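Model it.
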Amino acid sequence: MNGPILLITLKFKIMKNITILTVAAITAIMFGCNQTSQKKETNSKADFTEAKKESNDASANENNILKAKTTAEWKQFKTEADNEIAKLDQDLTKLDMGLKKMNTNDKQKFDGDYNQAKKDIMVLKDKLNKKNRAFDSDMKNFGNKTYEENKIFQKDFKTELTKVDLSLKKLIQDDKK
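Modeled.
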């Protein structure tokens, strides 16, 4: 919730700076009317160049803030995802212990679902590890697109994680019956 507000506030400040710079450039041009036309042109080019540089600096600052925010969010997401996967591993271990106690007929009912859950957890681990390795290179070429792609990955990953968690909980519940 704070992210969008921070971005809006930052964009407002940038727009305010650009407006101030524009007014300053116009004022400088108007005061220069008493000077020769060549001097006026030189002054307005310098003012424009300075305004453009300050605008670029403000954009770079906004990009750095978004990059820092993305990095912090990724670290938090990665920690939470690792914790959730560890819980899934624990649930899988409990289910495995329960399966070992079952007779052969009951065990056959659960083997396919158990193996699928185990495979799904491995896929999640692999996907998270690949994205974590790619994250560093994404940060080197950071832009708004990188931020959005990272958000989409996190949302999709959480959805997959929830599906695996639900299927595993259902298996555990069925195991207890």
